[in-house]
């Protein structure tokens, strides 16, 4: 707290005053100091025990503006009498008698027998008049008290005086009184402890009422926080993060490589956003940006256990053959291959090159998995990023949302292994007693929806989708026979909404988000329901 010079003076004056007199009334000692300044100075001194003080509330009689005017100039009746007396006679039409106060004054002057009417004129009766109204008001002005309580009502009714509340203080020396405010110590130092000066130091008292300044700062979005939770769990389980920068992908990676038939309703304009300019890309090939990121991340991760790599030939990476891979995919769709009987429809190459806003992160997983053909080995990959669907927006659906997805490749994987993995993964999120329900994905067989019991909602809720990737998907990529692969996916929004108690997804993402909500929700959740 900074005190200006004026307050500083007042505090010193109070110290002096209480030093000279056992008890002071601030209204008497400092009649002109504003009461807020007095209070600040008293607080400053009493918080240091230099004085003690009490506050008193009293009622005081004070003059109104009209009362002050009368105290200065005389009462209305006196002014009328005075004017008539000076003139000898005064016409009733004289402008001096026109005002409202002059009319009141006339009436009173008649009643007091100071003046009388003489035809159209006023003439004086009394030679001298005592203006008792003015005298009473002057007395009130000087003493703040009414001389004759019987008259008070009348003066109040005439609105010449009014009562008002006044706050006054009485003050006296405190145990630490001195003529000056001593320097206060704000920090206890090692030196003070060593030399014992802490014993006599004048410590500044703590102000427990002080509020901190609200800090303008960035805050983490709930989706970002839950995303971090998932990332930590997956990193701890030995996963590597896939590069998910490609929001725009081709029909090949998003659909064809995953055996979504070209005439499948999911590929309709109603379900998928297609890019119109440019509408299509070249044939499937490597993505240098994603490849560089993956190479770097794999080099720094612990996922690769060389002893598990039974494919000795793969110690030198083989070049990937995209022409062969594209032809394999076409063949599986059109005629069947790698043990699949195919969909048996004419496959359009143009469809494969169409640019789409990716509808699921499985497009990223397909891309990352096919790279394993260069050097087949076990791996655990995950991604958490945005996907786009041309949906009608409602309380639980947006046209864009986030998916958490993982793929695990290893030799001789089984469905039981997938279930055990899911139990471990969701167990880390606090979700136990999982239930699995057969489902369908064009790229996995078998496929399972995953359910967990929600203690808040008291029912089973779907928490994810999963499956074993089809052999024709992995073999078409050029991966070896024995290498199997699981995958799973879930939305990031759903667990976030449950954890943060949000009912409408639009409160979480998009232009309707209340920034106050983002700023005020806890930085860390301690619940693990
Ligand atoms: N892509 C699936 C979805 O959008 C999730 C999934 C990923 C399922 C991988 C199986 C394997 O729901």
Explained architecture:
By secondary structure, the chain is α+β, with helices and mostly antiparallel strands. It has three domains: 5-59 and 162-199, Ribosomal Protein S8, Chain: A, domain 1 (2-Layer Sandwich); 65-161, no CATH class; 222-306 and 318-520, BirA Bifunctional Protein, domain 2. The chain is 35% helix and 20% strand. It is built from 19 helices and 15 strands. The chain has helices at residues 5-20, 26-29, 35-46, 65-73, 76-87, 100-111, 132-143, 149-157, 190-195, 222-236, 251-254, 288-299, 322-334, 349-353, 362-370, 415-428, 471-477, 493-500, 515-520, and strands at residues 24-25, 51-63, 90-91, 115-118, 121-124, 161-173, 240-241, 248-250, 355-357, 379-388, 400-411, 435-441, 444-454, 459-469, 483-491. The strands form four sheets. It has a seven-stranded mixed beta sheet with strand order 7-10-11-15-14-13-12, with helices on both faces. It has a three-stranded antiparallel beta sheet with strand order 1-6-2. Strand 12 (435-441) and strand 13 (444-454) form a beta hairpin. Helix 4 packs across helix 7, helix 5 packs across helix 6 and helix 13 packs antiparallel against helix 17. The longest helix has 16 residues, at 5-20. The structure holds phenylalanine. The site of phenylalanine has 11 residues, from strand 14 and strand 15. Residues 360, 362, 405, 441, 444, 465-467, 487-489 line the site of phenylalanine.
Short description:
This protein has helices spanning 5-20, 26-29, 35-46, 65-73, 76-87, 100-111, 132-143, 149-157, 190-195, 222-236, 251-254, 288-299, 322-334, 349-353, 362-370, 415-428, 471-477, 493-500, 515-520, and strands at 24-25, 51-63, 90-91, 115-118, 121-124, 161-173, 240-241, 248-250, 355-357, 379-388, 400-411, 435-441, 444-454, 459-469, 483-491.
């Amino acid at each position: 707290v900074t005190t200006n010079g004026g307050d500083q003076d007042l505090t010193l004056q109070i110290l002096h005053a209480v030093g000279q007199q056992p008890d002071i009334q601030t209204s008497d000692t400092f009649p002109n100091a504003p009461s807020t300044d007095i209070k600040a100075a008293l607080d400053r001194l009493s918080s240091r025990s230099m004085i003690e003080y009490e506050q008193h509330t009293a009622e005081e009689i004070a003059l109104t503006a009209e009362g002050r005017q009368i105290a200065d100039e005389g009462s209305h009746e006196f002014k009328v009498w005075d004017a008539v007396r000076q003139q000898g006679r005064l016409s009733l039409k004289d402008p001096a008698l026109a005002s409202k106060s002059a009319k009141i004054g006339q009436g009173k002057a008649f009643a007091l027998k100071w003046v009388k009417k003489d035809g159209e004129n006023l003439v004086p009766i009394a030679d001298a008049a005592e203006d008792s109204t003015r005298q009473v008001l002057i007395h009130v002005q000087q003493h703040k008290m009414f001389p004759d309580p019987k008259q008070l009502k009348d003066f109040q009714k005439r609105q010449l005086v009014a009562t008002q509340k006044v706050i006054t203080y009485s003050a006296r020396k405190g145990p630490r009184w001195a003529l000056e405010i001593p320097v206060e110590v704000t920090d206890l130092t090692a030196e003070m402890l060593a030399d014992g000066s802490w014993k006599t130091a004048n410590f500044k008292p703590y102000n427990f009422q002080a509020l901190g300044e609200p800090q303008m700062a960035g805050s983490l979005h709930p989706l970002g926080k839950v995303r971090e939770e998932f990332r930590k769990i997956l990193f701890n389980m030995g996963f590597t993060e896939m590069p998910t920068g490609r929001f725009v992908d081709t029909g090949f990676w998003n659909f064809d490589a995953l055996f979504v038939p070209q005439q499948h309703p999911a590929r309709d304009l109603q379900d998928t956003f297609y890019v119109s300019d440019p509408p299509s890309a070249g044939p499937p090939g490597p993505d240098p940006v994603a490849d560089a990121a993956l190479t770097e991340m794999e080099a720094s991760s612990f996922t690769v256990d060389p002893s598990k790599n039974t494919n000795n030939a793969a110690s030198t990476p083989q070049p990937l053959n995209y022409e062969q891979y594209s032809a394999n995919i076409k063949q599986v769709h059109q005629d069947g291959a790698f043990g699949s009987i195919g969909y048996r429809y004419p496959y359009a190459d143009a469809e494969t090159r169409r640019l789409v806003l990716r509808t699921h992160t499985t497009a990223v997983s397909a891309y990352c998995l096919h790279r394993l053909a260069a050097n087949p080995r076990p791996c655990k990959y995950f991604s958490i990023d945005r996907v786009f669907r041309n949906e009608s927006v409602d309380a639980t659906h947006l046209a864009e949302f986030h998916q958490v997805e993982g793929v695990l490749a290893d030799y001789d994987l089984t469905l039981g292994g997938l279930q055990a993995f899911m139990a471990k993964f969701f167990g880390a999120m606090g979700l136990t007693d999982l239930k699995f329900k057969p489902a369908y994905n064009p790229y996995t067989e078998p496929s399972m929806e995953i359910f967990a019991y929600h203690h808040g909602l008291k029912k089973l809720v779907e928490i994810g989708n999963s499956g074993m990737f089809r052999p024709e998907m992995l073999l078409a990529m050029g991966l070896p026979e024995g290498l199997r692969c699981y995958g799973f996916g879930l939305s990031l929004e759903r667990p976030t909404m449950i954890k943060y108690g949000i009912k409408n997804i639009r409160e979480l993402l998009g232009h309707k988000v209340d920034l106050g909500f983002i700023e005020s929700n806890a930085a860390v959740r301690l619940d693990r329901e």
